[in-house]
Specification:
Elements: H1 11-30, H2 32-42, H3 45-48, H4 65-69, H5 72-110, H6 116-148, H7 160-165, H8 169-186, H9 196-203, H10 224-234, H11 238-271, H12 278-303, H13 313-331, H14 347-358, H15 366-377, H16 382-402, H17 410-413, H18 416-420, H19 424-445
Helix pairs in contact: 1-6, 1-12, 2-6, 2-12, 5-6, 5-11, 6-12, 8-10, 11-12, 11-13, 11-16, 14-15, 15-19
The structure holds fe (ii) ion (FE2) (2 copies).
Residues 94, 125, 129, 290, 293 line the site of one fe (ii) ion.
């Protein structure tokens, strides 16, 4: 079968393609995106400012000594900012996913008319992501403006994106050339499955069109040349087009890890006949909309590849490298102050909290803010246990999924890197290291 130029047919393929058609139809019929668009249109921060948007346990800095000392209105602000943090990251990740949906959609189209249904579903999902992103930014913009004022929109100099953009251009061009040559050599014979969209991006030299730091870009920690290498691979072979969805499934589950709690909170409010804040309702419908996307990811990653020719060792290597990088950059730690932010090294988080503590919400001086960061991030408290619980839950869900992907390396199949990041003791040691560096940067900039 390897190297075949014909579309593949098997008894299970038809069944699998029917599943994707059904999922697509259910998605269209649900109308959840339209609900989100309606909520987006009617959102005003002033109408939602007095209520929690999720359970207090999801608030940033929950369980810290600062949270204990905070006033009721400060606690509500921390709850709203938790939503903002979550959906800032989600919006960036969804902008990235639109890009990869288009790249892989081109590959599915190239596989023949049987696979067109997948490309259509992916296009529909991308359109839905655009509506989601719009709603997230609308809520985030108004919330940040109301709580933090103008300074919320000034970029911090310690932000990771600033650090990654100053790479050596020459060496990155060389790396690009080397990595793309490897992909070209190793995927020889599969040119007929190359994504048209990918070819157009390459011709215009726009392979990574977004400068986002979301999940798929390892929040800015995965080198750009490696991201371009992955993009070329996802759009150049049937197996790899499917396997982008292994990474996307992990992203889907990470989002669900927190969003499901907001969904449950929303149902509780509805049942008690209480006011449902607009952001809570957006999360509620977003979880439902994303359930269709998760089904797509699962179907492509776990099932469809079995109907295709067996992967080469190179193709297995690429997907393993991607899962490894995703574990390392997105899942390899806990913060102790944001329940589902799983980074081992996180200067942008400290920069954001530093800014928040000096904003009108807390109105602390710079030395006071720094001292609270040390108290909240570098010593054990209830927040670390909350973070560890969310991390552990996601770990067992991902292990269940990865156990069924027989080509994964044991370090990926058992999510060993992620597992090693679930320790509270390690998290505190990581925070102490990051804090030392962070306070040095602050001292230098004064
Ligand atoms: Fe979405
Ligand atoms: Fe999605």
């Amino acid at each position: 079968m390897k190297g075949s130029t014909k579309p593949w047919t098997s008894s299970t393929l038809k069944k699998h393609l029917q599943l994707i058609e059904n999922n697509h139809q259910n998605n269209i019929d649900s109308g959840y995106t339209e609900k989100i668009e309606e909520l987006d249109k009617n959102f005003k921060y002033s109408n939602n400012r007095d209520r929690n948007w999720s359970e207090p346990e999801l608030s940033i800095l929950y369980g810290t000594p600062l949270y204990q000392a905070a006033s009721p209105s400060q606690k509500i602000a921390l709850n709203h900012l938790s939503w903002v943090f979550q959906y800032e990251h989600t919006a960036q990740s969804e902008a990235e996913t639109i890009h990869y949906n288009q790249i892989t959609g081109g590959s599915f189209s190239a596989m023949g008319s049987d696979y067109e249904a997948i490309a259509r579903q992916l296009e529909h999902e991308s359109a839905q992501e655009r509506s989601h992103i719009h709603a997230f930014y609308k809520v985030n913009y108004q919330t940040l403006k109301a709580l933090l004022g103008k300074q919320a929109f000034i970029n911090s100099s310690t932000n990771k994106s600033d650090r990654t953009s100053s790479g050596n251009l020459q060496s990155s061009t060389y790396q690009d050339y080397a990595l793309r040559s490897i992909a070209k050599i190793m995927l020889k014979g599969k040119e007929q499955y190359h994504s048209q969209y990918l070819k157009e991006l390459e011709a215009q030299n726009k392979l990574i069109s977004t400068s986002t730091n979301g999940f798929f870009h390892g929040r800015g920690a995965i080198p750009q040349s490696l991201l371009r290498f992955f993009a070329v691979n996802w759009g150049s072979s049937p197996f790899l087009a499917c396997q982008y969805y292994t990474v996307r499934f992990i992203a889907n589950m990470l989002l669900k890890n927190k969003e499901y709690s907001i969904h449950t909170y929303c149902k509780k409010l509805q049942k008690q006949g209480e006011f449902v804040p607009v952001p809570t309702a957006i999360s509620y419908y977003h979880l439902l909309d994303e359930a269709f996307h998760t089904t797509t990811s699962l179907f492509l990653a776990r099932d469809l590849y079995k109907d295709l020719p067996k992967p080469t060792e190179y193709e297995k290597f690429v997907v393993n490298l991607a899962v490894y990088m995703i574990q390392r950059s997105n899942l390899n730690g806990i913060s102790g102050v944001v329940v589902n932010r799983f980074y081992a090294d996180d200067p942008p988080l400290m920069a954001n909290i530093y800014k928040l503590l000096q904003s009108p919400v807390f109105d602390l001086s710079a030395p006071e803010a720094l001292s609270w960061i040390e108290k909240c991030l570098c010593h054990e408290h209830e927040g670390f246990h909350q973070s560890a619980k969310f991390h552990q839950r996601l770990l067992s869900e991902l292990r269940q999924f990865c156990a069924r992907l027989d080509y994964l390396w044991p370090i990926n199949r058992e999510m060993r890197l992620m597992a090693s990041g679930g320790s509270i003791e390690k998290a505190i040691q990581n925070n102490i290291k990051t804090f030392k560096q962070f306070s040095k940067t602050i001292a230098q900039s004064n």
